[in-house]
Design a protein that fits this description.
Blueprint: E1 14-18, H1 30-44, E2 48-53, E3 68-71, H2 76-86, E4 90-92, H3 97-109, H4 112-115, E5 119-120, H5 125-132, H6 134-144, E6 151-154, H7 157-166, E7 171-175, E8 185-187, H8 190-203, E9 209-213, E10 219-227, E11 233-241, E12 254-256, H9 263-280, E13 284-292, E14 299-305, H10 310-319, H11 323-331, E15 358-364, E16 385-391, H12 394-404, H13 424-433, H14 439-448, H15 453-460, H16 464-482, H17 487-495, H18 500-507, H19 511-520, E17 526-530, E18 543-547, E19 561-565, H20 577-591, E20 595-600, E21 615-618, H21 623-633, E22 646-648, E23 658-660
Parallel strand pairs: 1-2, 1-4, 2-3, 4-5, 18-21, 19-20, 20-21
Antiparallel strand pairs: 6-9, 7-8, 7-9, 10-11, 10-13, 11-12, 12-15, 13-14, 15-16, 17-18, 22-23
């Protein structure tokens, strides 16, 4: 007697998508990007999309993203009334961040989904609970034989104090069902324990925290994983945090792919990721975070996000693999092998991406507006946004990322005046030891003052590979100051990522002269492609980064074209309203038969999606970054001050910008 095949539910005709609401610390534009991509993916499949969100600044709430758009408060009662009116077949809960996920759980628990026959699409409710509920998550890990950190689930201060008697501080507090580490923290002492535990219990919607042994100083590694209903799993990207465990990944510098893992450790964590996503039953994408002891290869699972996250947006832009798009199609029953890779059009979503470059993300903190705020960073996220840079080496990528931050025109040579004062040594020592927003500059300053790279690594827990790479930048800085700036040395410096402005300060030469000199001798960047497959297949909708090598992979676009200058990282006073403007500008240019070329460096946004514009460059939005692309796309435009043909473009980005066009335009 044969076992009947499982009944596959019919694809939904109408899907309800919950947005993420207003931008808050820990939740920026990444969910606007994910939700927008998902709505478009669903409509490609003929699905009617009903969207609710309360943020008017997002492209997600534009009239042509979904079939029906509600701009309403994100509450259970409002969502119930929309469901009653629209009668969707399914609800997609994993693309609206923690807001969307929590609301989906609340709708299910209130009986709304059962009453109106709404099916939770993609990741089942039980899988969400297993990942978000700290007690269920710990049970799942133990059932898999995955190493679990010594921890306990607490619902009261008394339970926390009892655990601390056997596992004394420092302890990490992780509230259930919160975003960005909200309400969490590190209890360094008994005095600190009560405060952190009570804050965590208050922040958790179910008044539950996980209290666990601290692994401060261990390496933190993330994997983005995708699974479909046929149990096909792939890893999309692995990422390594520059900062060790103890700093929220949203507040850490992150590098993809990992630079310091051995192949054995990489494969060990990859295999664990696949076991975990299968055991949880997640259908779609998820983010898994590990703590790895670099001395013994012992690892622990920190947490799993059963939804798209800020890391998912970074992984999507780093690899060219559209995670939210694929997750949305999986949610309505598609399999990875049946979903075309939208970038190559020749492969399927079941192919794991390959990277032949280095991607680096740096957070953008609000301390330039709040000078007196506590600048220490830890397990509770403080960054408002982030920037991404792509290049062929870590040294070049980190310099490009720092230029993209738009902080007082800082390069890695920036130093606070007090660092050379009478208490400068003590100030620097504190900034190096304590995670904070100025730490990367403090590391560079300490290296300049003779502190060995390996001593810094031992002091901070940062892997010595990274501190040695920073030391290599300092060594090149010294060469530029001491030696004549020959063409050969200029080429080496540009390959390492030194900007024209920094080279000008080191040599006492105006930035414009450095730029003119290198262009005169042919020292100009070429464009390289982000194509998901390391050039194994041709890309149909590639995007690009610039680097100093020989082979160029982006011929100038022919015909009428215009450059749209993006708005860079999200920060206080600049949300995603300018990204909305940039996307609209690209669409308007396309409608006018003018090719749009987007310049931006924010991985969370719709403007940096692979198909928003005719061509995308991930680049710093400074004079050098923009002008290099204008030279390239202008096919030999004359040197300034001879004006390049342009027309006024208005406030497309954060500031009034110019739309540069070819002569034909």
């Amino acid at each position: 007697m044969t076992t009947p095949a499982p009944i596959t539910p019919a694809p939904p005709r109408t899907v309800f998508v919950i947005g993420s609401g207003p931008i808050v610390i820990g939740q920026a534009a990444e969910f606007d990007y994910a939700g927008t991509q998902a709505c478009r993916a669903l409509r490609e499949e003929g699905v009617r999309v009903v969207l609710v969100n309360s943020n008017p600044a997002t492209i997600m709430t534009d009239e042509d993203i979904a079939d029906v758009v509600y701009i309403e408060p994100l509450t259970v009662d409002v969502l119930r009334r929309i469901i009653q009116r629209e009668r969707p077949d399914g609800l997609l809960p994993t693309l609206g961040g923690q807001t969307g996920l929590n609301l989906a759980v609340q709708l299910a628990e209130a009986g709304v989904l059962d009453k109106y026959h709404v099916r939770l699409l993609g990741t089942p409710l039980e899988a969400i609970r297993k990942a978000e509920d700290r007690a269920l998550f710990k049970e799942t890990l133990e059932s898999l034989g995955e190493p679990a950190i010594a921890s306990t689930i607490c619902h009261s201060l008394e339970e926390a104090r009892a655990f601390a008697l056997s596992v004394p501080p420092p302890l990490i507090v992780r509230p259930a069902y919160t975003l960005g580490g909200t309400g969490g923290g590190i209890a360094d002492s008994w005095d600190d324990l009560d405060t952190k535990v009570l804050a965590g219990l208050h922040a958790s919607p179910i008044h539950q925290i996980l209290l666990e042994r601290s692994l401060l100083g261990w390496k933190e590694v993330e994997y983005e994983v995708m699974r479909d209903s046929a149990d096909t799993c792939i890893t999309i990207c692995n990422m390594e945090n520059f900062d060790p465990v103890g700093v929220h990944t949203g507040d850490s510098i992150v590098i993809a792919p990992s630079q310091t893992l051995s192949d054995r450790d990489y494969q060990m964590l990859r295999s664990a990721s696949l076991r975990i996503i299968r055991a949880l039953g997640i259908e779609g994408g998820c983010n898994i975070q590990f703590a790895l002891d670099p001395r013994s290869s012992q690892y622990y699972v920190i947490e799993v996000n059963p939804r798209v996250s800020r890391s998912s947006a970074l992984a999507s832009k780093a690899t060219g693999y559209p995670i939210a798009r694929v997750a949305a199609k999986i949610a309505i029953g598609k399999l990875l092998r049946d979903i075309p890779n939208a970038v190559t059009t020749k492969t399927t979503a079941a192919f794991e991406p390959a990277l032949d470059y280095c991607v680096l993300k740096i957070p953008r903190w609000p301390f330039d507006k709040f000078h007196r705020a506590e600048r220490t960073i830890g397990t509770q996220m403080k960054a408002t946004g982030e920037v991404m840079a792509i290049d062929r080496s870590f040294e070049a990528a980190i310099q490009k990322a720092v230029r993209s931050l738009e902080w007082d025109e800082r390069d890695l040579d920036w130093e606070e005046k007090t660092w050379d004062g009478p208490e400068g040594a003590d100030i620097l020592d504190d900034l190096v030891r304590r995670p904070n927003d100025q730490r990367i500059w403090a590391l560079m300053a300490s290296l300049r003052r003779g502190m060995p790279a390996d001593t810094i690594a031992a002091t901070t827990g940062i892997d010595p590979w990274f501190t040695r790479r920073l030391a290599a930048i300092v060594q090149m800085e010294g060469r530029i100051q001491r030696e004549p700036l020959t063409d050969e040395l200029l080429w080496e410096a540009k390959r390492m990522g030194f900007g024209d402005a920094w080279l000008g300060r080191l040599t006492g030469t105006p930035e414009a002269e450095i730029a003119a000199r290198r262009r005169a001798v042919g020292i100009v960047p070429v464009s390289k492609m982000v194509d998901t497959c390391a050039a194994e297949f041709d890309a149909a909708t590639p995007y690009f980064y610039t680097t100093y090598e020989d082979e160029n992979e982006a011929e100038p676009l022919p015909g009428p074209k215009a450059v749209v200058i993006g708005s860079g990282p999200i920060r206080i006073g600049q949300g995603i309203e300018f990204d909305y403007s940039c996307v609209q500008a690209a669409h308007a240019l396309h409608a006018a038969n003018v090719r749009s070329i987007m310049l931006n460096n924010n991985p969370e946004t719709v403007s940096t999606d692979f198909d928003t514009s005719d061509r995308l460059y991930i680049t710093p939005l400074d004079e050098e970054g923009v002008m290099d692309i204008l030279y390239h796309e202008g096919a030999g435009i004359p040197n300034p001050p001879t004006p390049f043909p342009y027309r006024e473009g208005g406030a497309i980005g954060a500031y009034p910008c110019l739309l540069y066009t070819s002569d034909a335009a």
